[in-house]
Design a protein that fits this description.
Blueprint lengths: L1 E8 L3 E9 L4 E10 L3 E3 L2 E3 L2 H17 L7 E5 L5 E4 L16 H12 L2 H8 L8 H11 L1 H6 L2 E4 H10 L4 E2 H4 L5 E2 L4 E2 L1 H6 L10 E2 L3 E5 L2 H7 L5 E4 L4 H8 L7 E6 L2 E8 L6 H5 L3 E4 L5 E8 L2 H12 L6 H10 L20 H11 L8 H27 L5 E5 L6 H11 L2 E4 L4 H13 L6 H11 L3 E3 L4 H15 L2
Length: 490
């Protein structure tokens, strides 16, 4: 059996997975997991890139101790939009800002005064939003000019880490498409757009195709960790592109959901959809591992529950997953609904209080028990996903008959069942480790061990369990959806 390292880094945790392939089936083992959260310092939110890098090396050492002494390759996938700078002499320039940093809000307002939202969307295919790379770069230009003066190269997060391991500077296709700086017609950086905004386009490292072998690991890494050189591959750098790669989605009549802190819902298309409706409804177009596009909407996911659990823990009320299940089962359904994508839920100081305040504002019954909050969140999420699915059908002109859910969020069985109930469609959930599996697939394809993504997905189906959810209580959910639409006027 041959082995590869898949580094799957999310906005709340990171892990190293060993992917084994015997020619017929994939095998996946988690070797190392660590927390990963933005660090608030001097009025900004940063990613602790040095800690992430050290944790990755810790994972390598653990892997070797477990007997995985010969690795064919490694690849890194992460969340989208964030980046770091490298100086002319190859050094890292500080910790990267997080997309949750508030400095992007004002820069977004300034950008759309120069380049209207409609033009930005037509050029890049990406929904104009304050979290996008373009806003972070503009904010740095306005507030931290010295940083730009010292920078030689901009590398997006997975490629920044790839550089630290290989010494090769390149930005991979899928992660580049998340930036709002990529011109999808030209399939290259939008230098004209950057010129309009007086942004330094010369800093942008060249874009390479998914699966490009960058080179071997640096000698310093090999000596420190005690390994022979390992191929560093620029696999699908965006975790959502990885998740989609692992899901057994047929292009026709099926949607995908990548489920975690955020939930991304979409379909695969050959060309971006940049109509006025797509812009108005908040859809975006990002690259796939096989060179096409994901027409999707970035929606709120389990962040709401994570933040409630965090607030309750600080109050001395830790809740286990088993207790969470019991609370949801015992709570009366459809007492309160929220719009989970309302900006007030993006990063509040106290999530339960924010939900309660929202219900007061919308003249609804306020949640009281922990179960009330949990049910409110999960039911509201599922109803919002139905809204997204219906809009996808209108944008593509094609019916969606099945939904494929993957990622860690599918371990919440209520999320999967409620999604089936609300959308009134069959749901197939699996695999759980979709991002890490997709990461490894792009490596095995690059190494010539698999023919293409279609073959890879067939192997995934044979290698990992899938669970089907059929719609239940359709009349109740239909009535709830009517109330949801009326309340939020979508």
């Amino acid at each position: 059996m041959k082995y590869a390292w898949a580094f799957d880094l999310g906005a709340s945790n990171g892990r190293l997975m060993v992917s084994g392939f015997d020619g017929k089936k994939l095998h996946l083992e988690e070797i190392h997991r660590f927390s990963n959260h933005p660090v608030h310092l001097t009025g900004h939110y940063y990613w602790d890139i040095l800690r992430i890098y050290q944790e990755m090396k810790n994972g390598m050492l653990k892997s070797i101790q477990k007997g995985y002494k010969k690795m064919e390759s490694l690849s890194i996938d992460t969340w989208g939009v964030d980046f770091g700078f490298i100086s002319a002499n190859g050094e890292l320039l500080g910790n990267p800002y997080s997309y949750r940093d508030p400095q992007t809000i004002e820069s977004f307002k300034k950008i759309i005064e120069i380049v209207p939202k409609e033009e930005l969307f037509r050029r890049t295919g990406v929904e104009p939003a304050a979290i996008n790379t373009i806003c972070q770069l503009y904010a740095i230009k306005e507030q931290n000019q010295r940083l730009l003066e010292n920078a030689d190269t901009l590398l997006l997060t997975p490629n920044l880490i790839g550089y630290l391991l290989s010494g090769v500077k390149a930005n991979e296709y899928t992660i580049s498409t998340t930036t709002s700086l990529y011109h999808f017609h030209h399939r290259q950086w939008d230098h004209t757009l950057m010129e309009k905004l007086n942004l330094p386009s010369n800093l942008m490292a060249d874009i390479v195709e998914t699966g490009t072998v960058l080179g071997p690991t640096l000698d310093s890494i090999n000596r420190e960790v005690g390994i022979s050189p390992v191929k560093v591959i620029a696999g699908a750098g965006h975790d959502t592109a990885c998740a989609l790669a692992a899901l057994p989605v047929k292009k026709e009549n099926a949607a995908f959901m990548s489920c975690g802190t955020w939930i991304l819902i979409g379909v695969q298309v050959s060309e971006p959809v940049v109509t006025a409706e797509a812009l108005d409804w908040g859809f975006t177009n990002e690259g796939t591992a096989d060179g096409e596009y994901r027409l999707l909407k970035n929606t709120m996911g389990l962040w709401l529950i994570q933040e409630c659990r965090s607030a309750w823990l600080k109050e001395g009320k830790p809740i286990s997953y088993e207790q969470e299940d019991q609370l949801i089962r015992k709570t009366k359904p459809f007492q309160t609904l929220i719009d989970p994508d309302d900006p007030v839920f993006f990063n509040p100081e106290h999530m339960p209080r924010q939900i309660r305040d929202y219900c007061v504002k919308t003249k609804q019954k306020t949640p009281e028990s922990d179960g009330d909050f949990l049910r409110c969140i999960l039911e509201s999420l599922a109803l919002k996903y139905r809204w997204v699915i219906e809009k996808l059908e209108k944008l593509t002109g094609k019916p969606i008959e099945r939904i494929h859910m993957g990622g860690g969020g599918i371990q919440n069985r209520f999320l999967c069942q409620f999604t089936a109930n609300a959308t009134q469609r069959m749901v197939t959930a699996g695999p759980i480790e979709a991002s890490a599996i997709g990461n490894s697939l792009t490596q095995w394809i690059a190494l010539g061990e698999m023919k293409d993504l279609q073959e890879g997905r067939e192997i995934v189906e044979q290698s990992f369990p899938m669970k089907a959810y059929e719609p239940e209580n359709q009349l109740e959910w239909q009535d709830a959806y009517g109330k949801f639409l009326q309340l939020f006027r979508h």
